[in-house]
Amino acid sequence: MQEKSTQVKQDEVQCGDGGGPITVLRFAGDITSASQTAVLGTYQALPADARRILLDFSKVEYLNSSGIALVIQLMIAASKHGQTIKTFGLTPHFQKVFTMVGITKYTSLHADEQTACAAFTA
For the whole prediction, is pTM greater than 0.85? Predict the structure, then answer.
């Protein structure tokens, strides 16, 4: 199986809560040990005022333990910087995996972008 490179598109959305824009990191392809620059590099390049971040996994085709470790590193860094992260687009399998490895300590998991966006105001 040939690995598909990780693409990350940075986006901004408004949730209608008046809290300002929300930064969205839209992942696509595979997330593995080779994804460090795409995952952590994109996060580290975010503007310092990015306080609310959505992680979109809806186009991720493959995610292994090394990729999950990168996601955990991103979430720990965000927590240290006082940023709030919401996550959506995970398959049921990876929702279960993220819960089992304790990622839900740093983020809440949502079915879709609207639900995740609304969770910032809940």
Answer: yes
